Every structure is written in C-alpha cells, then in structure tokens.
UniProtKB/TrEMBL annotation:
Cofactor(s) it depends on: FAD
Organism for this UniProt entry: Mycobacterium tuberculosis
Stated name of the protein: Monoxygenase
Key words, A-Z: FAD, Flavoprotein, Monooxygenase, NADP, Oxidoreductase
GO MF annotations, alphabetized: oxidoreductase activity, acting on paired donors, with incorporation or reduction of molecular oxygen, NAD(P)H as one donor, and incorporation of one atom of oxygen
PANTHER family the record matches: L-ORNITHINE N(5)-MONOOXYGENASE-RELATED
Tree of life domain: Bacteria
EC top class, as a word: oxidoreductase
E.C. numbers: 1.14.13.-
Length: 132
C-alpha cells in the first residue's frame, strides 16, 4: 500500500478502501476523517464496511474490492472540494503544519460529519467488484 500511495498520493474510496487491495478495509484511511468526532468516524466507516460485507455474504462472494474508477471519482471530488477546508484559506496559506503531507495535501475529508454519515449509508455498492 505504501507503494500505491507513493505513486498515486494518499487516497482511499470514502476513506475506507484502496483499489488493488481486496478484502482490506480501513477505519482511518485518507480522506475519511472529517476532523470533528473520532467516534463519528468509527461509526461512519464501520457502517460502510458492514454494508460491503453484508453484500458479499448475501452473494456468497469471497472477494470484494473497490474499483479504480470509483476511487478515482471520489479522489477527484475530494480534490475539487478541499479548497473549502480551513487549511486552504488565506490565514493558513503559509503555515507549516503536520496536516500537510509531502504532496501538500491535507488528507481530511472535505465534508460535514452529517454528509459523511449519510454517504456511508447511501454509497453505490456497484463501486465494488464482488466475486468468488
């Protein structure tokens, strides 16, 4: 995964899944945490993961992996919306902060907690490739 992130920057679909890593889910992935409540993060990400696992179980699948297209779409949305974050305001423009990674990105989710919660319950399960 380190190689993937070195080559493609930090990214994970909804902060949970990385393409090329089937059956792997993370709770604190890049662009998953809104920056408010850690407990809200755990609940939101766990709900996303449970939806995936339930779908796999219902279909008898043994492998589930986010598609590259879904991940690219989410990452593009994050990049488009990130300028609304406080880190991208003029007051933080010259800050030397540990929030910025080596690419100058802030891998926090540029949404509200409510939106993250909603999306964990409504994301398209078709964004995952499911197989046996």
């Amino acid at each position: 995964m380190s190689r993937f992130w070195d080559e493609h920057r930090l990214q994970a679909y909804e902060g949970v899944s990385v393409p090329g890593y089937p059956n792997f889910f993370t709770v604190f992935g890049p662009y998953g945490y809104v920056g408010s409540s850690y407990f809200a993060l755990i609940e939101t990400q766990a709900h996303h993961i449970i939806r995936c696992l339930k779908r796999a179980r219902r279909t008898g699948a043994t492998r589930i992996e986010v598609t590259e297209e879904a991940n690219a779409r989410y990452f593009a949305e994050v990049m488009r919306r990130r300028h609304r974050q406080v880190f991208w305001q003029d007051s933080c423009r010259l800050a030397n902060s540990y929030y910025f990674d080596k690419n100058g990105d802030v891998p926090l989710r540029p949404t509200t907690t409510v939106e993250a919660y909603w999306r964990s319950r409504r994301f398209d399960l078709g964004d995952y490739r499911i197989s046996s």
